[in-house]
Amino acid sequence: MRLSKAFVKTYKEAPKEAEVISHKLMLRASMIKRLASGVYSYLPLGNRVLKKVENIVREEMDKSGAQEVFMPVLQPADLWKESGRWIAYGPELMRMKDRHEREFALGPTHEEVVTDIVRNEINSYKDLPMNLYQIQTKFRDEIRPRFGLMRGREFIMKDAYSFHTTHESLDEEYLNMKTTYENIFTRCGLDFRAVEADSGSIGGDVTHEFMVLAESGEDDVLYCDSCDYAANKEKATSKADFKESDEEAKSIELVETPNTWTIEDVAAFFNIPTSKTVKAIVLKEAFGENDKYYMALIRGDYEVNTIKVKNLVNAAVELEMINDSDMEKLNLVKGFIGPVGLNNENIKIVMDESVKFMKNFTLGPNKKDHHYINSNISDFKYDMTGDIREAKEGEKCPRCGGTLKIARGIEVGHIFELGTKYSEAMKANVLDENGKQATLKMGCYGIGVSRIMSAAIEQNYDENGIIWPVNIAPYEVDVIIPNIKDKDQVRVAEDVYQLLKDHNIDVILDDRDERAGFKFKDADLIGFPMKIITGKSIAEGKVEVKDRKTGNTEIVEIGTLLDYVK
Ligand code: ATP
Ligand code: MG
Ligand code: MG
Ligand code: MG
């Protein structure tokens, strides 16, 4: 491409409404153009960045084994009513009616549509696991659209949905996606962290967000410098209903048990007659080479007959709901979580069957309290004499005892183990290996493709403009002719331009009839990673090569130029 022909209109100043640096620079550098609040066009330079991010995402998703699909933005309300989200999603869901007064939503996410496809097309476990993804426009009527592409009302997301018949398979794909996301964000040149997260309106239990640490981020991330603990503050501060006077909670004991224990062993250990319901809940340490099991015993006046341990075999724990109409009794759950979290790290309640029931059970008035079930205990700070406290900067890391630090983060990706939330509501079943109908287990995995553009700039800029990470730069190299009237400069620049193009280097030629200083300023503002300048040194068969990030300049023989660029 030649800048003389390109649609690039740069500005010295950004409009007043642009608050953060990425928004200002994207407007000044002619990347995007606002149409309405939270709605933007991508101009040629911005569009190239977007496509490069998309390609990285697509390549890594394909590599992971996921299959690309393309689903409709326009979605019938009936599907959303089936999942319960027509109401639950609230005003962020863009709604409309067609000419026959039929209701529709503009997709903010696609769990309903994809579940509908799979329930109709997939009937057997043999076709699973399967992960379907798309890169597509999403609509969310954000209450505060702002910061340009960072929080749009129309934006580009990569969303993926996986389907499984077993939990192990879901766990496996979750890890596969986690690694895939790490590869994607690394290739995009981002400095990021995977943090434990809140699942919001999507629902689900196990979930991580990928945060780009930057001042303009809208989330607070608590992280530990000594270990890899990191959590969204939203999650780290979830509060339970604990009262200081909660004697039952205080009297809970934690006992490490061998994983070969049977129900009888458990009962004997706690001195409980086997004829009675076992007053214990088994926890499995969720990581480490040797699985450890923990037994939390309630020694209160609780008549704990809501849950009984039915079976305990190797890694799996089976719990049976005895009286699931008696919700009150489930209060015992809050009884053991705190103290366990105090002494141990990353312990997970592993109760496959009962989770279904427990998930619908709210421990406290706050929806976030759902996380007390089937999530990592290390997130919760419990103090035996009081409430679960907010994890704060400067405290004890709940995992290793190190010191917690706080940073602002931009959420660029989010992965969830949804379990059966949607498949159950929408009756998505397949025949399992035993020929029985099994409810599908699902995972979902999102990336803010357009938000990555903003996040990359928030981390890579200086007083002169953007410093694009090379893999997502609109062009990798800007060949600048300082003086267009100088025929030798033009000839050498044209040769270099052709040479780089021949070697598949993404290059643009600044052949505009403008002052050299103006061209350099534009190059810095737009953020091309490398400038090649055909200045005085061409007399010696050399050109100037300038690195945008370091500012280093080298005089390079044209013959060896490719070594520099590649
Ligand atoms: P946020 O907390 O920023 O509102 P979210 O948690 O609502 O995001 P998800 O439902 O997890 O978003 O969607 C997956 C990804 O889509 C997010 O990780 C984010 O990168 C991106 N995203 C979400 N909302 C927007 C938006 N309004 N504009 C641009 N990207 C967005
Ligand atoms: Mg949101
Ligand atoms: Mg979020
Ligand atoms: Mg999210």
TrEMBL record:
One of its GO terms (cellular component) is cytosol. Residues 33-469 form the Aminoacyl-transfer RNA synthetases class-II family profile domain. Its EC number is 6.1.1.15. It is an enzyme of class 6 (ligase). Catalyzes the attachment of proline to tRNA(Pro) in a two-step reaction: proline is first activated by ATP to form Pro-AMP and then transferred to the acceptor end of tRNA(Pro). As ProRS can inadvertently accommodate and process non-cognate amino acids such as alanine and cysteine, to avoid such errors it has two additional distinct editing activities against alanine. One activity is designated as 'pretransfer' editing and involves the tRNA(Pro)-independent hydrolysis of activated Ala-AMP. Its main location: cytoplasm. It catalyses: tRNA(Pro) + L-proline + ATP = L-prolyl-tRNA(Pro) + AMP + diphosphate. Belongs to the class-II aminoacyl-tRNA synthetase family. ProS type 1 subfamily. It comes from Sebaldella termitidis (strain ATCC 33386 / NCTC 11300). The keyword ATP-binding applies. This is Proline--tRNA ligase. One of its GO terms (molecular function) is aminoacyl-tRNA deacylase activity. It is found in: Cytoplasm. The keyword Chloroplast does not apply. Homodimer. Pfam families: HGTP_anticodon (PF03129), tRNA-synt_2b (PF00587), tRNA_edit (PF04073). One of its GO terms (biological process) is prolyl-tRNA aminoacylation. Consists of three domains: the N-terminal catalytic domain, the editing domain and the C-terminal anticodon-binding domain. CDD domains: ProRS-INS, ProRS_anticodon_short, ProRS_core_prok. HAMAP family: Pro_tRNA_synth_type1 (MF_01569). Keywords: Aminoacyl-tRNA synthetase, ATP-binding, Cytoplasm, Ligase, Nucleotide-binding, Protein biosynthesis.
